[in-house]
Amino acid sequence: MSLKVKRKFVIQANVSYRIIKLIAQLQMIFLLTLIDLILYIRPSKKLKKGKKPTIMASSAVKRARKSKAQRVHNKHYRSLMRTAVKKVLSCKDKESAQKELVQAVSILDKLASKRIIHKNKASNQKSRLTLFVNRIGPV
């Protein structure tokens, strides 16, 4: 008799857990759709009384979604670049600085070829780092 009660309790617990999980998923979906709906409404400077906000074109909404995804993608690579530059600038001896410089130049060239940073910025950074390494005393 007690086994049946335990089984019922376990089944009820599983069902309630599933319901809670389903509710959480629905809430998340609802929030995401709200965010997407907010994208459709273009923020205007001043709304006059009785006027509704303008609705963005579907192409503009898609562009906003794409730019958000690209921003996350580019953020990773920019962080990688900054870390490489900091590693070169933090070196005290010439040997380690030259090794780090080779890696930093490689990263800068990759980012310039992918157009994550401008080619002139990559060139300026490489020049700056090379000058820094050359100014470090002899080995």
Uncertain runs are 1-11
* Overall helicity: over 70%
Q: What form results from the Cα inertia axes?
A: elongated
Largest sheet: none
Number of alpha- plus pi-helical segments: 4
The SSE string, one letter per element, is HHHH
Strand content: under 5%
What is the CA–CA distance across the termini?
84 Å
The helix-and-strand class reads mainly alpha
What is the β-strand count? Answer: 0
Rounded Rg: 28 Å
Mean pLDDT: 79
Structure, described:
- This protein is an all-alpha fold and 139 residues long.
- Helix content is 78%, strand content 0%.
- It has 4 helices and no strands.
- Mean pLDDT is 79; it is low at 1-11.
Describe this structure in a few short sentences.
With 139 residues, the protein is mainly α. The chain is built from 4 helices and no strands. The protein is elongated, with a radius of gyration of 28 Å.
Task: Show the helix and strand layout.
Layout: H1 2-40, H2 58-90, H3 94-113, H4 119-135
Key features of this structure:
disordered N terminus; elongated; 4 helices
